Amino acid sequence: MFSKLASGDFFIFIFANISSQLAPKVINNSIYFKFFLIIVVDLQQIYEKMIRYFHEETDFTLPQKALTKQWLKEVAAREGRRIGNINIIFCSDTYLLNINRQYLSHDYYTDIITFDDCEENTLNGDLFISVDSVRENAKEYADGRFKEELDRVMVHGVLHLIGYDDHTEEEQKTMREKENEALVLKAELEK
């Protein structure tokens, strides 16, 4: 959902900027078109294989973005997957509640909603994370350690993209084990 809109807007922006700057200078339109295609293909390859961060109705900014990307890529690789196009959108409780109502017909607060758009072994999707709920959950489940709870929630979303679920007690146990393994990996990468 979010990723498709973002990528479409991105390429329109690129095309508009390239065409406005190069069109007056290029005499042969076929050369211009070939040049544009080369740039789009190169940019698309770079653009589509990444984790991007956004925020809605919150001022929260994730520290250590590069380390988090490296960590989540390693989590995916250990499960035989690769990162494609993942958007992590940090938002408020209200924003996430509205998404929960609109897209899932659920009328309750949650800490994360994952929209899966994966293709085979490539992980694509949108992770909407309520910073408000993560802060509250950190007090209850992580001895007030917001960073640890946020890491757990982010990897929880990635694990959903990988295919893990948490509807039954057995699934919840497996999910928690995978989250814990990932948190150990993150601690190792931070050293």
Can you lay out the helices and strands and say which pair or pack?
Elements: H1 2-22, H2 29-48, E1 50-56, H3 65-78, E2 82-91, H4 93-104, E3 112-116, E4 122-130, H5 131-141, H6 146-162, H7 169-190
Parallel strand pairs: 1-2, 2-4
Antiparallel strand pairs: 3-4
What does this structure look like?
By secondary structure, the chain is α/β, with parallel strands linked by helices. The chain has 2 domains: 2-47; 51-190, Metalloproteases ("zincins"), catalytic domain (Collagenase (Catalytic Domain)), CATH 3.40.390.30. Helices cover 61% and strands 16% of the residues. The chain has 7 helices and 4 strands, in the order ααβαβαββααα. It has a 4-stranded mixed beta sheet with strand order 1-2-4-3, sandwiched between helices. The longest helix has 22 residues, at 169-190.
Task: Please tag this protein with its features.
globular, 4 strands, Collagenase (Catalytic Domain), single chain, 2 domains, 191 residues, alpha/beta, 7 helices
Looking at the structure, the CATH topology of the largest domain is Collagenase (Catalytic Domain)
Mean of pLDDT = 85
Helix content: 55-70%
* Beta-strand residue percentage: 15-25%
Residue windows where pLDDT falls under 50 for at least 5 positions: 23-27
Largest sheet: 4 strands, mixed
Total strand count, please? Answer: 4
Radius of gyration: 19 Å
- For the record, the CATH architecture of the largest domain stands as 3-Layer(aba) Sandwich
Name of the CATH class of the largest domain: Alpha Beta
